[in-house]
Amino acid sequence: MAKGDKFRKGDHVSWASHSGRAYGTVTEEITERVKVRGHAVDASLEHPQYRIRHDATGRDVAHRPEALRREEG
Which residue range or ranges hold the Hypervirulence associated protein TUDOR domain (predicted)? Predict the structure, then answer.
């Protein structure tokens, strides 16, 4: 992702996981410290993260934008 680009709700993305690439859909941009599935997400306006609904499991995960890759469809 180029600096300044942002992901939007509904974007289909992928990220590296233990078993290869994982896929999901962005559900929101996180701009404050929250917990996602019991894990602290240290996000801010300057360093946002994204809540993603995992395609295979349906669970929510959070990732920094640099870990994500926009996918078609």
Answer: 10-68
